[in-house]
Design a protein that fits this description.
The complex is a heterodimer. Chain A is mostly beta strands. In chain A, strands 1-8-7-6-5-2 form a six-stranded antiparallel β-sheet, with no helix packed on it. Chain A has a five-stranded mixed β-sheet with strand order 3-29-30-31-32, with no helix packed on it. In chain A, a hairpin with a 4-residue loop joins strand 9 and strand 10. Chain B is α+β, with helices and mostly antiparallel strands. Chain B has two domains: 40 residues; 150 residues, no CATH class. In chain B, strand 3 and strand 4 form a beta hairpin. Chain B is elongated. Chain B starts with a helix and ends with a helix. Classes of the chains: A mainly beta, B alpha+beta. At the A-B interface, loops of A face strand 3 and helix 4 of B.
C-alpha cells in the first residue's frame, strides 16, 4: 500500500511539475524586455526656432581703409576661373621654402573652412564673427593684410565643425557669397555696396545642410547660378537686379549638398552639373530650355557629398564622396537632343580613387586625389590615376607621405598640398611619380581644410581660425 | 691614542662579522627589490591603443568573456555632437531617426538624445555593447574619432594571457600601468592619466 501511495505521489508531483513548466514556458515572453527602436526616441523637436529668425542680409557696412594696388592677379571662385584648381598666371613659384616660408601677414577668423577669392590685389572672404554673431564679407589688402571693409548681417550660427565654409565668386562688378545658413548676398566688390540678397530657406524652403552650407556660388556671365535644393533644384539670378531668370523644378525633392555646381559642355550644349543629396543632374544653361533638367541619375546618392563633380573629357564625369561612399565614373551621352547616363565604374573607397572633402584635379590627362580615411592601406595618400580607369592607381605618395583632409592646388607645374595639420608641401606636378620637393609647418593646423588661393605669387591658406598669406614667388 | 684603540677594535673577527652582516643586508635588499618587482608585474594590465586599432571586429569574438570585456568608450571632449553621426547611423541611412533600420550598431547599444539645435549627444549602453567596433569605424571614417574601443577593466578578468592581444592583427594591445589603465587617442599620455 505504502509503495503504491509513494508512486502516486511521484506521479502527481511529476504531472504538477510538467504542467507548471508548460504553463511557464507558454506564458513567458522572452522578448518582453526588448525595446523597439522607433523614430522619435531622441526627442528631436518638430521645428527649429532658428528658422524664424529675421535676417536682414547685408544690413551693416564698416569701412576701415582704402588702398590702390598694381597687382592684377585673379583667383575668382572655388577652383578658379576654369573650375580645375590650376593657377594659370605664369608667375614663377618657389621649389622650396629656403630658410623659412616667407609669411606676409596673418589674420584671425571665425572658426570655419571658408576660403577667399583674390582680385586685383584684394582678398575677399565670407567669415563669421563669433563675438558679434554676424556673417561678414571681409575685404583685405593682398599685400599687407589690412582689412579695408566689411559687409555683414546678424545671424545666429552655432559651432558645428566650424561655421563658415564657402568661397565667394567675383567679377569686376559683382561679388556673390552664400552664408552658413543659406543666405545669398551680392555686393559690389569695389566698394562693398549691397546689391541684393536671397534667403534660400525662406524663399525656396532649402534645408540647411549638416554643418552648414558648403556650396560655393557660380557666376556665369550676368547670372548667378545657385542650387537651393528646396522647392527649386537650381536657380539663375540676374546679377544686376537680383531677379530670378529661371528656376529648375525639383520633383524628386533633392536637397542641397556641400557640393558646388560645375559647368560642362557636351556636343556644343552648355549645362550645369550638380550633385545634390538624392542624385546628380545636368541642367541646361542656355537656349529655350535653360533651367530644364537634361539628364539625371540616382546611381550615386550618398547621405553627404562634399566634393564637386569633376568634369572630364568627352562627356565623362567623376564623382566621389566620403563616409564609405567611394566614387562613380559615368558618361553622359547625347543622341538627337536626348541625354542618357551610363555608369562606367562605381566602387567603394578601398577599390579606387576617391575623396572625402576635396575635389580631385585633372591635369595632363591624369587625375590626382588624396584618398580618404577608409581607403585601407593607401588611406590619406596622394595618388594618381588614368581617369579612364579610376580603379587602377598608377602611383601614390607612399606610406611616409600621407595627407589628411586638406586642400591641394597646381601652380607653376607644382602641387601645393596643405596637410590638415598645417604643413604645406611642395611636390612636382608629375604624371609619372610623386616627388616631394619641400615642406614646412605654417599654421597650427586644426582642421586646415579651406581651399587654397593663389594669385600674383601670393598663396593664401587657412586652418580653422587663422588665415595666412605667403609670398611664394621665385626670386 | 684614541685612533689607535679604534683601529685595534676592528680586528679580524669584527671585520668578518661586519662583512657577514653587510652581505645578509645586501641579500635581503635584493630579495625585497625582486619581490617588489614581481608584485609590480600584477600592476600592469592589457589595454588597446585606439591609434593602432583597425576596427577588425576581433575584440568582439576573441575575448574569453561573453560578451567581450572590450567596450566602446565615448570621449565626449572630442565629439562634435553631430546630427548626422557616422558612429550611430548606417552610411546609407536616408532618415536620421532612431528607427532600427537607420542604426549602425547591431545591438542598439548607442543612445541618442537631442541637446539643442543642431546637437545630439550619444551615450554607450555598456551592457549592450559587444565591442564589434562598427561604430568606432564609422566615427573615425567620418567624424572626429570620439568613439574608441577600450578594455573595460571593471569587466576584464586580468588573466594576464589576453586572447585578444594574441589575435589582434594590428598589434594594438599593450601592457599599461594599472595606475593609468586607459589610452584614448587624441590625448597625450599625461592627459590619459588624469
Amino acid at each position: 500500500m505504502l509503495k503504491l501511495g509513494f508512486v502516486k505521489i511521484i506521479v502527481f508531483i511529476t504531472i504538477l511539475i510538467s504542467v507548471s513548466s508548460f504553463l511557464w514556458w507558454f506564458t513567458k515572453d522572452p522578448v518582453k524586455e526588448l525595446v523597439a527602436s522607433v523614430p522619435g526616441m531622441d526627442n528631436r523637436p518638430e521645428k527649429s526656432a532658428e528658422l524664424e529668425e529675421i535676417v536682414n542680409i547685408g544690413e551693416r557696412f564698416d569701412e576701415y581703409g582704402t588702398q590702390t594696388s598694381l597687382l592684377t592677379g585673379k583667383w575668382t571662385r572655388f577652383r578658379g576661373a576654369d573650375f580645375d584648381n590650376i593657377v594659370k598666371d605664369n608667375t614663377p613659384l618657389i621649389d622650396n621654402f629656403g630658410d623659412a616660408p616667407k609669411e606676409i601677414w596673418r589674420v584671425e577668423l571665425g572658426e570655419g573652412h571658408a576660403a577667399p577669392v583674390i582680385y586685383n590685389g584684394k582678398v575677399y572672404i565670407l567669415d563669421y564673427n563669433e563675438f558679434k554673431k554676424r556673417d561678414a564679407l571681409r575685404c583685405f589688402s593682398l599685400e599687407t593684410g589690412e582689412e579695408l571693409w566689411r559687409r555683414s548681417y546678424n545671424i545666429n550660427i552655432k559651432r558645428n565643425h566650424g561655421m563658415s565654409r564657402t568661397v565667394p565668386a567675383i567679377t569686376d562688378k559683382y561679388l556673390v557669397t552664400i552664408g552658413p545658413r543659406c543666405h545669398v548676398m551680392c555686393t559690389d566688390p569695389n566698394n562693398g555696396d549691397l546689391l541684393w540678397g536671397i534667403d534660400l530657406v525662406k524663399e525656396y524652403m532649402t534645408e540647411v545642410p549638416f554643418w552648414y552650407t558648403g556650396q560655393c556660388p557660380l557666376i556665369d556671365g550676368d547670372l548667378a547660378i545657385i542650387a537651393p535644393g528646396g522647392s527649386s533644384l537650381m536657380i539663375a539670378v540676374n546679377l544686376a537686379t537680383g531677379e530670378i531668370v529661371w528656376e529648375t523644378p525639383n520633383p524628386d525633392n533633392w536637397k542641397m549638398s556641400h557640393s558646388s555646381i560645375m559647368p560642362m559642355t557636351l556636343n556644343g550644349k552648355k549645362m550645369y552639373v550638380y550633385a545634390a543629396l538624392g542624385g546628380i543632374c545636368g541642367v541646361s544653361a542656355e537656349g529655350d530650355d535653360a533651367g530644364q533638367i537634361l539628364w539625371k541619375t540616382i546611381e550615386f546618392s550618398p547621405t553627404v557629398i562634399a566634393p564637386s563633380p569633376l568634369v572630364l573629357e568627352n562627356g565623362r564625369i567623376f564623382m566621389t564622396a566620403g563616409y564609405g561612399a567611394g566614387a562613380m565614373l559615368f558618361q553622359i551621352k547625347e543622341n538627337a537632343g536626348k541625354y542618357s547616363v551610363e555608369v562606367l565604374q562605381k566602387y567603394k573607397p578601398k577599390d579606387g580613387v576617391a575623396s572625402e572633402q576635396q575635389t580631385p584635379i585633372y591635369y595632363k590627362g591624369r587625375m590626382f586625389s588624396i584618398l580618404p580615411k577608409d581607403a585601407a592601406g593607401m588611406r590619406n595618400q596622394f595618388v594618381c590615376c588614368d581617369p579612364n580607369d579610376c580603379q587602377t592607381i598608377l602611383w601614390t605618395s607612399g606610406k611616409e607621405d600621407r595627407y589628411g583632409l586638406g586642400p591641394y592646388i597646381i601652380a607653376d607645374d607644382k602641387f601645393f598640398i596643405l596637410n590638415d595639420d598645417g604643413t604645406l608641401n611642395i611636390a612636382k606636378a608629375s604624371t609619372t611619380k610623386f616627388t616631394l620637393l619641400d615642406k614646412a609647418k605654417i599654421i597650427d593646423g586644426v582642421d586646415a581644410w579651406g581651399p587654397l588661393a593663389i594669385a600674383d605669387g601670393y598663396l593664401i591658406l587657412r586652418d580653422s581660425k587663422t588665415m595666412v598669406c605667403l609670398d611664394i614667388r621665385k626670386k | 691614542m684614541a685612533k689607535k684603540e679604534k683601529k685595534k677594535d676592528l680586528n679580524r673577527r669584527a671585520f668578518i662579522d661586519r662583512g657577514f652582516r653587510f652581505s645578509i643586508g645586501l641579500g635581503l635588499t635584493g630579495l625585497g627589490v625582486g619581490l617588489y618587482k614581481r608584485s609590480r608585474a600584477k600592476e600592469y594590465v592589457w589595454q588597446l591603443d585606439p591609434a593602432k586599432c583597425i576596427q577588425c571586429g576581433r575584440c568582439a569574438t576573441s575575448c574569453i568573456m561573453t560578451p567581450s570585456a572590450v567596450k566602446c568608450f565615448h570621449v565626449y571632449d572630442m565629439c562634435g555632437y553631430c546630427d548626422l553621426c557616422g558612429g550611430y547611423f548606417r552610411p546609407e541611412a536616408k532618415n536620421l531617426t532612431t528607427a532600427a533600420e537607420n542604426q549602425l550598431c547591431p545591438t542598439a547599444a548607442i543612445e541618442r538624445k537631442f541637446i539643442e539645435e543642431p546637437f545630439f549627444e550619444y551615450h554607450i549602453i555598456e551592457e549592450l555593447c559587444i565591442g564589434c567596433a562598427k561604430c568606432v569605424k564609422g566615427c573615425g571614417a567620418f567624424g572626429n574619432g570620439s568613439l574608441q574601443l577600450q578594455v573595460n577593466h571593471r569587466l576584464c578578468v586580468d588573466c594576464n594571457e589576453c586572447s585578444i592581444a594574441r589575435d589582434c592583427p594590428a598589434d594594438a594591445f599593450e601592457r599599461v600601468s594599472i595606475d593609468s589603465p586607459y589610452i584614448f587617442a587624441g590625448f597625450s599620455k599625461e592627459e590619459n592619466k588624469s
